[in-house]
Structures are given as structure tokens and as C-alpha cells.
Amino acid sequence: MINLETPRKFRAFVNQAHQVAAEMLRPNSRRYDLAEHEYPVELDMLAAMVDGLGASGTGSGAGASGVRRTAAASDGIVDGVANGSNLSSVLSIMEMCWGDVGLLLSMPRQGLGNSAIASVASDEQLRRFDGVWAAMAITEPGCGSDSAGIRTTARLDGDDYVLDGEKIFVTAGGRCDAVVVWATLDKSLGRAAIKSFVVMKDTPGMTVERLEHKLGIRASDTATIRFENCRVPRENLLGSADIDKGFAGVMQTFDNTRPLVAAMAVGCARASLELTRELLSDAGVQIDYDRPVHLQSAAAATYLAMEADWEAAYLLTLQAAWMADNGQPNSLQASMAKAKAGRAANDITLRCVELTGSLGYSEHHLLEKWSRDSKILDIFEGTQQLQQLIVARRLLGKTSAELK
User: Fold this and answer.
1) Which one of 10, 233, 289, 309 is least enclosed by Cβ atoms within 10 Å?
2) What are the residue ranges of helices labelled H in 75-205?
3) Is-above-0.90 flag for pTM?
4) CA 7, CA 379: separation in Å to the nearest integer?
């Protein structure tokens, strides 16, 4: 049975994450929002600290983690209850994104590609790519959330795969050491032929074309990358090259990254709620948890509704991470958490701007920035609409061909 309290062994680590967010991330939030594409040098020290915690065994899951299941767990045989790196990661990410989402996404060696490697890499690959900062490249000009539409190709030629194609909206694509690229071995086979490859940044044929200017998360660089006759060692293919094993191994990455994105949304929304409550209190608006909502002011009633919406997103996120730690299939819960948290964060941050009026809309506070940052959390790692489609397929027992 899931316990909704923060596990005792994580409390010190979560408190540390909150302290970093309060003392390093939030004070630099406005600076790097205005200085788009400028590298946040303060993060080098933070990344070194996270690496040190991981190396010493005191990190409690610091950094990117993956959904890796043992055979026993896959068979439903789990001794006791595990609170592992997935739950620790979402709890720490909530705290860090209470500070700043864009800066969290800019942390060295903590990219979404690192989660992909952690999820599906072999033990040998885990050792070989240890310490590498990896971005993840999925989206293409003609392919967004429908990953089955990927057109970047990977052709086996001797001991190398040759990649050709273009990827857009690659988070940390300009700063990373490597990119986890999704490509198809055979376009005619659809999803089954899609695999992921680790491509180091110095590989000939790989070019960072440009960095995007964005609405939010401006501290994080977002790149367009082109691959032209880019040769990648065959041992850099993550997981199995066997097409018969299908798309499941690649998609397992999302079982991990979607709860992480949900955690980002939960943290950002919490920051907005806390500041909004302070501003409402300063304006004389009292929020009373002991009185019925209909007996309170409209502002207080709106705030209480937002807080309830946030609580639902928070609990779904914990559930998805806890299930991963306990070897339980969590694809449905990961999509539910991502869908709920992404939409809730959008609604909450915008409503907070509305409730606080000119204070929320100006740059005097960070409320307007959080409303801009939150929008991407409802889009990347699978849009709101796609998550709802995945949830519907799971609940109705339909395949992607039966329910489009």
C-alpha cells in the first residue's frame, strides 16, 4: 500500500533540493529568463554536488533515473515495499521546479536522454555512458507526438548505423555531450522498427542547426539538429536491435520521463499557489479551510479549487513513480499523471496571474514567468491530447490501430 508521506530516508535529500531551489535557482530565475541562450554557470557547481551525492551513495536517486524491472518484479513478485530512485527523483524535481523549471532542465548530466539510457541501456552501456550529459531527440518537422511517424532513418552498414534525418525541439541539444536519437530501421514496419541510438556530439554528420527562441523555459536551450550520413557504432543502439521485440523497449523510456515532467508541473504550480496565497493575504483575502467554500469570497473559493486540482496532480505523480519503483507496469498511470499535472499547472499558473491582477502580470513577481514556463509541461513528452488518447486505449483495451 502506498504511503503518502515523504519516506524518511528521502526527507533530508528533499530538504536539500528545496534549499538549492530557494538559494540558487529562484534568485537566478529572472536573470536567465531575460538572457536566453546564456549558459547558467552556477549549475556546474550544482551538478558536481549531485554527482558527488550519487557517487557517495547518499543521493537517494539524485539525477536522472530509469524504469528498470527485474524478472521477479515483472512477474508480480516483490518483497515488501520499495521507495526507490523514481520516487526520489520526482520528489526532488518538484522542489527544484519550485525554484525554476528552465534551470532544472539545464542541469548537466541530468537530461531526458539520461533517463532514456537509464531505462533501457544494457549494463555495459550504463558503464560506458556514465557521466555523459544526454539530450533526447524525438520530434521531427513532420512528426510531433505521434512517434510512429518518425522518418529519421538508421541503416546498418558494417559495424555502424548510418543516421539521416532532422530533429527539432531537442532540449539541451546545444549544450549536451550526446543525443539519444529515435530513428527507424525500416519505415514500412511502422513502430516496430523504431530504435534509439546514443550519438556523441563530436560525431561527423551531426550538426546543431539553430537554437529556438521560446515563450518559456528560456534558460534551457532548445535545438534543431540535422543528421547527414552520420555513422554511429552499432553498440550505441540502446536495448535490443531485434525488430521482433517491437516498440515496447523504446516506449519504456516514457514510463519514466512522463512522471518526471509531471513533477516539474507540480513544482511550478506549487510555487504559484504559495506566492498567490501570500499576495491575497496581503490584500486582505482570507482563505479559511474550516468554512464551506460558498461562504467565502470568490477569490478564496477559486484558490481552494486550484489547490484541490494541484493535490490530485501531486498524488497521481507519486503513484506513477511508486509503481515504477515496485516493478508494477505504470504506463497508464504515467500518462494520467502527465495529463493531469500538465493541464493543472497551466490552469493554476494562469489563474494565479488573474487573481493577483497587475502584480501577477508584471515582472515585479515571477508569477507571469511561471505561467509561461508551465505551458511546455503540457506539451513535451507527449501532448495533453495524446495522453488522453493513451489513457482511453488502456482503459478500453484498444490498440493504437483501433482507437486513433
Assistant:
1) 289
2) 85-99, 101-105, 112-120, 123-128
3) yes
4) 30
What is the pLDDT, as a whole number, of residue 247? 64
pLDDT one-digit tens code per residue, 329-343: 999 999 999 999 999
* Total domains present in the chain: 1
Beta bridge partners of 232: 161
Residue-number span of the structural domain to which 169 is assigned: 1-404
> What value does the CA radius of gyration of the chain take, rounded to a whole number of Å?
21
Overall average pLDDT of the 99-117 stretch: 91
The C-alpha atoms of residue 344 and residue 364 are separated, in whole angstroms, by 24
Q: Comparing 144-153, 241-250, 271-280, 313-322, which segment has the lowest mean pLDDT?
A: 241-250
Q: Specify burial of residue 218 (Cβ count, 10 A radius: 0-12, 13-18, 19+).
A: buried
CATH number at residue 29: 1.20.140.10
Other CB atoms within a 10 A radius of the CB of residue 131 amount to 10
pLDDT value at residue 127: 94
356 vs 283: CA distance, rounded Å: 9
Question: In this structure, what is the dihedral angle of CA atoms 21, 23, 27, 32, given to the nearest 10 degrees?
Answer: -60
Name, in order, each residue with C-beta under 8 angstroms of 113's C-beta and a sequence gap of 6 or more: 134, 135, 136, 176, 178, 179, 180, 198
